[in-house]
Design brief:
There is one protein chain. By secondary structure, this protein is α+β, with helices and mostly antiparallel strands. The protein has one domain. The protein is built from five helices and five strands; from the N terminus they run E-E-H-E-E-H-E-H-H-H. The protein has helices at residues 30-37, 63-73, 92-97, 100-114, 116-122, and strands spanning 11-14, 22-25, 40-49, 52-61, 74-77. The strands form two sheets. It has a three-stranded antiparallel β-sheet. The longest helix is centred in the last third of the chain and has 15 residues, at 100-114. It is globular, with a radius of gyration of 18 Å.
Length: 133
């Protein structure tokens, strides 16, 4: 029988923005992706001007989305605060302490492992849109 659950080892990434730093990131389960969607929203705007219609979509991401990603996807790292205390990514205060460049780099790896943009392009059978980061 085919295995249909998340499996495999987390992916290791050496951080370019933090010499000697690394993170290990795991793929989210479908349940985690569903939970993550609670923090995102998509809004479509349809404007009519004369005989022309214009449609645009706006993705709104909340702080909670990024905090959720760090808490659930980063399963190992060697990053500390100024006192040498290991950062705990399940603690929003610790995530917010990160230098912007480092947090953004980690975020790109989370997106890469979880294929948020690719998921959006593929779509799903329920008709709901997958979030992107």
């Amino acid at each position: 029988m085919p295995v249909a659950v998340v499996q495999g080892e987390p992916e290791h990434f050496d951080l370019k923005s933090c010499a000697g730093g690394y993170v290990k990131i795991q793929r989210m389960t479908y349940g985690e992706k569903l939970e993550r969607r609670q923090f995102t929203s998509k809004m479509e705007i349809l404007a009519q001007r004369g005989s022309r219609d214009a449609k645009s979509t706006i993705d709104v991401f909340k702080e909670e989305t990024e905090l959720y990603d760090f808490a659930h996807c980063v399963v190992e790292h060697n990053l500390t605060d100024l006192d040498g205390r290991p950062l705990i990514f399940r603690n929003p205060t610790d995530v917010k302490k990160l230098a912007g460049r480092i947090a953004e780099e980690i975020g790109t790896y989370i997106d890469k492992v979880n294929n948020f943009e690719e998921d959006e392009a593929v779509g799903n059978s329920s008709g709901a849109s997958a979030p992107t980061s």
